Amino acid sequence: MVWSDPVSDIRMVIGGLFLLYGVILTVAGLLGDPINLWTGLPMAVFGGGFVAWARVRRL
Predict the structure, then answer these.
(1) 31-40 pLDDT tens trace
(2) Is 3 inside any structural domain?
(3) 17, 24, 42, 44, 47 from 34: Cα distances, Å
(4) Cα–Cα distance between 23 and 44 in angstroms, integer?
(5) Residue 44: inside a domain, yes or no?
(6) For FRET with 5, which of 23, 30, 53, 54 sits at 20 to 30 Å CA-CA?
């Protein structure tokens, strides 16, 4: 495994999961329960921040 591989960076994995779950919750919130919207939006922003951080500052 090469350490410069973006998938091996734990920030990409954590950020991707938060981003995915945030988008799923946001869509569920738009279609129904508003608590999903208020939970999904911050999760998506947090996940996007992690992914951006991992892409800007590589290991």
Answers:
(1) 988 899 999 9
(2) no
(3) 21, 13, 13, 15, 20
(4) 6
(5) yes
(6) 23
